[in-house]
Design goal:
The protein has two domains: 86 residues, no CATH class; 135 residues, HUPs (Rossmann fold, 3-Layer(aba) Sandwich), CATH 3.40.50.620. The protein is 53% helix and 10% strand. The longest helix has 23 residues. The relative contact order is 0.16. The mean pLDDT is 89.
Length: 247
């Protein structure tokens, strides 16, 4: 399931489309070579800083940054579950991955400016012994000296993160929250909270801004750009799916 999902997601499917075009060319030469050439050109563009950052900016500008007044009106901080590092046999424990760590760090910074109660949310992933929510709470405590007020451990996707967080917070009289996640994940997160009847405020997070003019180095492919394109396309398609499936 995970393998098929990964291969079908852009830009990964372009890696399949190129050899598929070559195979098609054995029967229909022009069509096959056109498929391969278009897939290669799209893959190249998505692997460049200019291409990937353009996609991220297009996604992130769906939500303007929150104002100081909006942030002051929040009643709690919600940290969305991200990735996880799977421990190894022999005593290496599970831990949060780099995306989750960035979210925890952002939450800690936000807490020091606005000491609000914190909810962390996320289920166990694969064979992990602890949920992502519990791992993030552990990192908040051990690395930043901050205790999470609530730990939600059942949500398996962004929509469930929002719905289950709302089920915990609403009985406590909380309906306005600061949502902590990466900027490219923020549109889908805020939309999910709104569907759960919550007022979600995008917490400050790093955004991409295009510099003045186009430098030649922005057209050279690199792995970080490939990864950024994956995040941007995954989130864009995910938001469209959510609006269709969960509305």
């Amino acid at each position: 399931m995970n393998l098929s999902y990964s291969l079908l997601m852009p830009p990964m499917f372009l890696l399949v489309a190129i050899p598929a075009g070559w195979l098609i060319a054995l029967r229909w030469r022009r069509t096959g070579w056109a498929v391969a050439a278009l897939a290669w050109a799209a893959l190249y563009a998505l692997c460049t800083p200019y291409g990937s950052q353009s996609l991220l900016i297009l996604l992130e500008t769906r939500l303007p940054p929150a104002s100081a007044a909006q942030i002051l009106g929040a009643q709690a901080i919600v940290v969305m579950g991200g990735d996880v590092y799977h421990g190894k046999i022999g005593g290496v424990p599970d831990d949060i991955g780099p995306l989750s760590l960035e979210r925890v760090r952002l939450a800690a910074q936000l807490y020091h400016r606005h000491p609000l109660p914190i909810l962390v949310t996320g289920a166990a992933e694969g064979s992990t012994d602890m949920s992502i929510g519990a791992l993030m709470a552990k990192s908040l405590d051990e690395d930043f000296g901050i205790k999470a007020t609530w730990i939600e451990e059942q949500a398996e996707n962004t929509f469930q993160n929002a719905a289950r967080a709302a089920a915990i917070l609403k009985p406590a009289g909380i309906d306005t929250v600061l949502v902590v996640t990466q900027s490219w994940h923020m549109p889908r997160s805020v939309w999910s909270f709104e569907q759960a009847g919550m007022h979600a405020i995008p917490a400050p997070a790093q955004r991409f801004y295009m510099g003045h003019g186009l430098d030649w180095i922005d057209l050279l492919p690199d792995y970080p750009s490939f990864q950024r394109s994956f995040f941007a396309l995954h989130e864009g398609l995910g938001l469209l799916y959510y609006e269709y499936h969960y509305r």
